[in-house]
Amino acid sequence: MSTPRRVLVIGGGASGNAVTILLRRAGVTVDLIEARPDWNATTGSGITLQGNALRVLRDLGVWEEVSACGYAFGSLGVTIPDGTVIHEIEDIRTGGPDLPATLGMQRPRLQQILIDTVRACGATVRLGTTAKTLDQDADGVSVRFSDDTTGRYDLVIAADGLNSTTRAAIGIADKPEPTGMAIWRTPTPRPAGVTRTDLAYGGPAYIAGYCPTSEDTIYAYVVEANRDRASIPPQTYADEMRRLAQAYGGVWPEIVEHITDPAKVNYTWFDKLLVEGSWHRGRVVLVGDAAHCCPPTIAQGAALSLEDASVLAELLTSGRDWDEDLFQAYYERRVPRVRTVVEASVQIGQWQLDGVRDADVPGLIGRTMTILKELP
């Protein structure tokens, strides 16, 4: 059986962009389609990238640019609502000793770096385009697109996110479930005293935190019980976030002064998902949030998605046949590690929801990060 050489990637987020770059580097022909005409280039406030995410970004050849744009740090502070630090956790270098433990950066900046790299790698990119139908046979997948053009592929990689329509189209019934929490997020200028992430537990919100994203910026967030989005007018988003955040001390009063523009405030529910059994049907394979997601309580969502792309690309370019055994090997290699992170991330949130005062959050984070030091 000859090695297949033509791949369709559905979705231009972190995992879709990464797998595109890696497969193109190996000489595979890749078409990437993205539903949003703007390629998500301006969406989001900030992102926390731990070492295992940075390791993949280095493999993609973008580490120097990411490093120049972001803000690296090596510890996490746990505080009470007035800002007093009660515990410091030295971050584990999950990407190895030659990469920072953690780096924060503006999410749109990371996306633009990946977009530029996809463009440069020679992939064919079509924006504002979705897959209408996927018809599989033993040799490949015939795809009809939203503009009524068609294509024939040896493999389709579904990187179309948490609410993946591809996942449903291939008969995987798993859907994301809300955890009961929601998060308010916004970018603001960086107070001089902010040199790492600090998390305050308690107060009017379950968690209030921030992450430096450059020398001049941070993204701040507060986590509360989820509410019906329809009951919160978008024009009140800044007021709602400010109401929760103003109860916190330390640098929070300075942060609150800049929470004024509702258009810059994002409100999102926390969801959980882990597709069981396999992450493929025939020649359609899931990566990233299409296969799994978890609350950002350990800040591993992007890292897991980037790891998926790295492992799948490694297997696809190993010289093996692209068959059931390879796709199942991808799942079996990924699922124990992903399960550990999903369960730990959900558990930290559940402790907050249940009001468990003696929960060992630092211990659980430390045990999980120790596992993530191993190569995926």
Task: Write structural notes for this entry.
This protein is α+β, with helices and mostly antiparallel strands. It is built from ten helices and 20 strands. The protein has helices spanning 14-25, 51-59, 63-69, 107-121, 165-169, 237-245, 252-256, 301-316, 324-354, 361-372, and strands at residues 6-10, 29-34, 47-50, 71-73, 75-79, 85-90, 102-105, 124-127, 131-136, 141-145, 150-153, 155-158, 177-189, 197-201, 207-212, 217-225, 266-274, 280-281, 284-286, 292-293. The strands form four sheets. Strands 6-5-14-15-16-13-17-20 form an eight-stranded mixed beta sheet. A hairpin with a 4-residue loop joins strand 9 and strand 10. The longest helix has 31 residues, at 324-354. The two termini are 28 Å apart.
Strand content range: 25-35%
| Helix content range | 25-40%
Low-pLDDT residue spans = none
Strand tally is 20
Mean pLDDT: 96
Molecular shape: globular
Helix tally equals 10
Span of the ends, CA to CA: 28 Å
Structural class: alpha+beta
Q: How are strands sequenced across the largest beta sheet?
A: 6-5-14-15-16-13-17-20
